Amino acid sequence: MSFAVAIDGPAASGKGTIARAVAAHFGFLHLDTGLLYRAVGRQMLDGVPALEAAEALTPDRLNDPSLRSAEVAQAASKAAAIPAVRAALVDFQRAFARREGGAVLDGRDIGTVICPDAEAKLFVIAAPEIRAQRRCAELRGKGAEVSEAEVLEDLRVRDERDMTRPDAPLKAARDAVTLDTTDMSIEDAVAQAINLIDRLRAKA
Ligand SMILES: Nc1ncnc2c1ncn2[C@@H]1O[C@H](COP(=O)(O)OP(=O)(O)OP(=O)(O)O)[C@@H](O)[C@H]1O
Ligand SMILES: Nc1ccn([C@@H]2O[C@H](COP(=O)(O)O)[C@@H](O)[C@H]2O)c(=O)n1
To answer: What is the C-alpha R_g of the chain?
Structure first.
């Protein structure tokens, strides 16, 4: 039996952290769909046309640690605004969502476009300054020299582009439950997500 959990939200809102913990708790597989766009963005920076990169994308490309950089994130968000690039990545995501045993996908359009019939939908948000603080701490932990101001600007530009593109813009699905993690610990946010999914599984 399949059970799909769709987790969307703006950049660095904590959706990946929640998605990984939820997948581990329920024994579901997890797909960070941002990595698909980051892998395309990475290749764009190397001069490969975005659509060519999307059509030739293979899962091994998703393990590249350089995909986490701010430069790749911006390139990913530009690639993600091209409808043909998004279309090339749809089948893989939909097949993942409906695999046996349960799946958690996090991204921007999972509950609205990729899996509108997902059994559980969450929209994870947090105040921009808090997201920037958290992402900044994460990047500094990996040795990057970044300021909160530049991280905040990076998130702002990406969110704006992601929310205003005509195709599959970032927005909450009508039936998504919004989780604002601004004043929540990771443990509390994960517990709330698990609680919601438990209730929805009991009904499914
Ligand atoms: N509730 C929380 N309290 C404190 N830190 C958090 C919380 N949730 C997430 N974080 C931290 O914030 C950072 C961003 O979280 P995460 O990577 O899960 O966000 P994301 O929405 O998946 O980001 P992206 O859009 O870049 O994929 C991480 O360092 C994570 O550990
Ligand atoms: N379902 C998705 C997921 C991601 N994107 C775009 O990719 C960029 C990077 O995503 P992260 O989750 O790793 O931050 C993001 O800014 C979006 O432009 C998307 O469009 N749809």
So the answer is: 16
The CATH superfamily of 4-203 is: P-loop containing nucleotide triphosphate hydrolases (3.40.50.300)
pTM listed for this prediction: 0.98
Tokens 């950089």 correspond to 69
Interatomic CA distance for residues 202 and 204, integer angstroms: 6
189 alpha carbon – ligand 1 mean position (Å)? 11
Question: How many whole angstroms separate alpha carbon 98 and alpha carbon 91?
Answer: 11
Q: What is the mean pLDDT of each run of 10 residues along the chain (204 residues)?
A: 96 98 98 98 98 97 93 97 98 97 98 98 98 96 94 97 98 98 98 97 86
Task: Break the chain into its structural domains and give their ranges.
Answer: 4-203
ipTM of the complex: 0.98
- Assess contact for 102 and 27: CB atoms under 8 A: yes
CA–centroid distance, residue 203 to ligand 2 (Å): 31
Whether 131 and 138 have beta carbons less than 8 Å apart is answered as no
Q: Which ligand is nearest to the CA of 36?
A: 2
Ligand 1 atom 15: the closest Cα is on which residue?
Answer: 14
Residue numbers in the known binding site for ATP are 9-17
How many Å apart are CA 160 and CA 4, to the nearest integer?
Answer: 27
**Residue 73 Cβ contacting ligand 2 at under 6 Å:** yes
- Report CA torsion sign: 143, 185, 147, 80: positive
